[in-house]
Design the sequence.
């Protein structure tokens, strides 16, 4: 059985993936989190104590294990809230983030997520 | 016929009216809220100081009031009344602080006359009626100034003042009567 | 009035108290009380009470203008502690062919777009915005309601038309909302002077 990365590691990888999508200017703490100040990408220190801004829950499985257990299980879910630039259509940026997340999971040979939620919290 | 001017200048939010600012802030615009903080911060501090009876706690009470205002602004229907709404919030926060002091028996520490108390001569020399009244208020015992402001400025009933300060409303009437007499004497000296 | 105030006790007020006179003033001297109205001491005291009352409404505003401007760290202490997420509102979905995709904009982000459209258009400051309709259902008709105030000398209908266009373009570009109406309500034009007092222009 192959060793897959932890949810936390995957979440931090996905943060970098999402930040790199053109049009994304900010990641926000999860939508349902208690009231917190905005965390700027620039000021966050790598490996800091803050929880990852991409919320990963469920089980991280490699693609083969995922295929065997079947996708009807409550598998991996990914959720992120982003701030986007006004210069690109927010709808396009949102879709691009979804695609980037899905592509990353595939490239990492991980089982696909049963749900990927991308919420645009601000357009500036 | 009015001249149509192409104006692409950014509006100066600091000159916008209360209703617009409150509407933007209710919708989430933090810069608009900050304008309200700057516009009414001093008034709220002055009011809190009168209710609290001293400078202690004013910073915290007014900050807490603004933070609560931000949270509840979306539920304010009459956005144009945001000024009086803010004043009600700061009054409630001030009463809460007074209650907390009573519970901790700190109340007497804050009941000394304000350090701004001036001599009668200063009142005579005041440059305006308002200034003279300020000085006269400062010369009152804290409880008289507090009750008078709540009645005459904020419009609270004797009953509500009594409830908030945990004293009988008949006592409130007596305190305010003494405040009025003292203020009249001080102010007539100014004239 | 130049008569000296002889006193404020019942002896000086023909048996009346300052409390009674205050209540009488509160009631607008009605119903008329003959014994108060006929008492010179009472009339003098009532005049003094009325002068005091006329000042009380503005006393805090006057004191506020003499109060030092709060320092920036106190203001930051407020602004840093208020939460952005509380204003998210409803989620406005975006379509995607994949069933695993849940894509949406917050209502708050769309209100921000509308405010920015106001700055882009010029001549009007956008206040409160409402998205009227079932924004959570794709394709449902949505009416946009915007309160604005005007500034500058420009014709308001012209500015409103520009604003409507700017809002329509922004919503079309960034969202999939089916916007059936954009209602712009202009508040009275107000100018605000430096001390925060208002006057109609």
Sequence:
């Amino acid at each position: 059985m192959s060793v897959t990365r932890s949810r936390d590691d995957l979440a931090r990888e996905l943060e970098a993936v999402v930040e790199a999508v053109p049009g994304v200017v900010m990641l926000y703490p999860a939508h349902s989190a208690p009231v917190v100040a905005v965390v700027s990408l620039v000021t966050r220190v790598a490996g800091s104590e803050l929880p990852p801004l991409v919320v990963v829950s469920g089980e991280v499985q490699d693609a083969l294990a995922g295929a065997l257990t079947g996708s009807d299980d409550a598998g991996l879910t990914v959720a992120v809230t982003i701030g986007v630039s006004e210069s690109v259509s927010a709808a396009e940026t949102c879709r691009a983030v979804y695609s980037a997340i899905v592509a990353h999971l595939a490239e990492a040979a991980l089982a696909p997520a049963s749900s990927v939620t991308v919420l645009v919290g601000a357009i500036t | 016929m009015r001249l149509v001017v192409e104006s692409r200048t950014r509006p100066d939010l600091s000159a916008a009216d209360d209703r617009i600012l409150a509407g933007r802030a209710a919708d989430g615009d933090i810069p608009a809220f900050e304008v309200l903080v700057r516009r009414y911060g001093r008034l709220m501090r002055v009011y809190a100081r009168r209710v609290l009876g001293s400078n202690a706690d004013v910073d915290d009470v007014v900050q807490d009031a603004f933070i609560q205002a931000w949270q509840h602004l979306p539920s304010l229907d009459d956005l144009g009344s945001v000024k009086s709404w803010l004043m009600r919030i700061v009054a409630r926060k001030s009463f809460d602080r007074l209650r907390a002091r009573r519970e901790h028996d700190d109340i007497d520490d804050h009941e000394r006359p304000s350090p701004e108390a001036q001599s009668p001569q200063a009142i005579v020399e005041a440059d305006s009626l308002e200034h003279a009244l300020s000085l006269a208020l400062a010369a009152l015992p804290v409880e008289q100034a507090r009750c008078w402001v709540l009645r005459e400025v904020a419009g609270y009933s004797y009953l509500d003042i009594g409830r908030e300060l945990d004293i009988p409303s008949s006592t409130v009437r007596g305190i305010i009567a003494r405040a009025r007499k003292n203020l009249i004497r001080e102010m007539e000296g100014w004239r | 009035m130049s008569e000296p105030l002889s006193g404020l006790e019942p002896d000086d007020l023909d048996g009346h108290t300052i409390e009674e006179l205050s209540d009488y003033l509160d009631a607008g001297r009605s119903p008329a009380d003959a014994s108060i109205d006929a008492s010179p001491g009472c009339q003098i005291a009532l005049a003094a009470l009325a002068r005091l009352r006329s000042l009380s409404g503005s006393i805090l505003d006057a004191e506020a203008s003499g109060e030092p401007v709060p320092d920036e760290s106190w203001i930051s202490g407020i602004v840093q502690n208020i939460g952005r997420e509380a204003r998210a509102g409803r989620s406005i979905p975006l379509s995607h062919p994949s069933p695993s995709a849940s894509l949406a904009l917050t209502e708050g982000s769309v209100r921000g777009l509308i405010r920015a459209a106001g700055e882009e258009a010029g001549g009007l400051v956008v206040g409160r915005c409402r998205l009227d309709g079932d924004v959570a259902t794709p394709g449902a008709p949505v009416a946009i309601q915007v309160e604005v105030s005007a500034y500058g000398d420009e014709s308001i209908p012209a500015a409103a038309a520009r604003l409507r266009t700017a809002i329509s373009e922004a919503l079309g570009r960034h969202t999939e909302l089916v916007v059936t109406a954009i209602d712009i309500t202009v508040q009275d034009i107000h100018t605000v002077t430096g001390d925060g007092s208002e006057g109609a222009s």
